[in-house]
Amino acid sequence: MSHTAHIRSHRKPRRSASRVTMRAGVAGGVLGTLAVAGTSASSANAAEPVTQTLELPTLTSDLAAQVAQSADATEQAAANYRLSAERDAAAANAAKQAKADLADAKKKAEARKKAETARKKAAEAARQAAADRASRTTERPTLSATSSVGSTSASVSTATGSAAAVVSFVKAQVGKAYVSGATGPSAFDCSGLVQTAFKQVGISLPRVSQDQSTAGTQVSLSNLQPGDILYWGGAGSAYHVGVYVGNGMFVGAQNPSTGVVERPLSYDPPSGAVRVL
Which residues are within 8 A (CB) of 136 and not within 5 positions of it... i.e. 6 or more apart? Predict the structure, then answer.
């Protein structure tokens, strides 16, 4: 036995190997964890740009295609809407124009119908007047150059001055048409012819036969002079007028069938006469 076997050592006792090993292991584990974490973080940070570089172009291309498709669809829808709107507008305009054309056609048809009715009435009135004159011819003495009613001096008298101008004018209108309400130059009715003839010499006569039959001094049919106004019917209610042109003849716008004619007094004897010249 050593002589120092029972002497206590003054050195601190060594830590147990197991405890040191455990502590070293813990420390190493912590450092290893940190190292791994750091490495992972570094790897993640290093990989991220690679991921963006590889993935983003694909996502951006898909998105652009989707946006383009959506834009095309929107544009097509807008074009279809515009086309539909244009068609609707064209249809509305066509309907409006058709309605206006129909209304215009109806107006024209109505106007033609009224004109035709007026023409028929005028023709019927002229026919009736002619029939009335024909019936009165058998009831009144016939006027002629040798008739006891008409004087020889009146029949052979010659117009002068304003009367000659009136006579010349009415004779120049012989052969022109009879149109109710017309005052020339290509057509006349009876009072229109008389009014226009006297207008040539500056005399203004009333427009209608009734008023013209009282426009001057009443004269006897046996004392007629060229330029006298002849009337048929009563004074103030005459239905027809003409102009005496001398030599037992008169000129008048008779009716639509004969127009303006020169006839002997015996053709249609007048009821009376007035003198304005």
Answer: 269
